[in-house]
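Async update (no meeting this week)

Hi team, since we skipped the sync, here's where things stand on the single-chain job. The sequence we agreed to prioritize is pasted below, unchanged from the tracker. I ran it this morning and attached the output directly underneath so nobody has to dig for it. Comments welcome in thread, and please keep replies under the output.
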Amino acid sequence: MLTIFTTAKAFVGHSAVIQRNALASWRRLHPRVEVILFGDDQAAAGVCAEFGLRHEPHVERNESGLKFIDYDFDRAQEIACHDTLCYANCDIIFLPDLLRAIQTVQTARLRFLVAGRRWDTDVRESIDFADAAWADRVRRLAVAANQQRDGHSPES
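Output:
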């Protein structure tokens, strides 16, 4: 199965909406998918409790307060329940076909690294995950926006 790990911005305003949408989509991939959120603010703990995520409150930072992401990678490898790990920015919505892609790679290779590209999609509201068609709606929004990152822009 799969462990997804991430770190978040503060859960306020638009960042709260898009991060909560992303985390909710990850939880819906499969009941055995583990999600680990690294974050030392109170909102991170509350979101983890609400969504049933694993919260890792310890965060390593440099002198200016930026998080050391390498700590998260090392720690995730130590504590993950699954052998397959996925790091993702906390605003990335995963659709159900992610698991099919991972299973295809797992079948073909024992060791692997997979990288993806995001589709920039302007989602301003909470997604209604109770609606069975939520993934189709999100996919249509992404295709309509037609803004897949090529990996070369400064904001990638």
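Quick observations from my side:
The first strand starts at residue 2 and ends at 7.
The radius of gyration is 16 Å.
Reply here if anything looks off.
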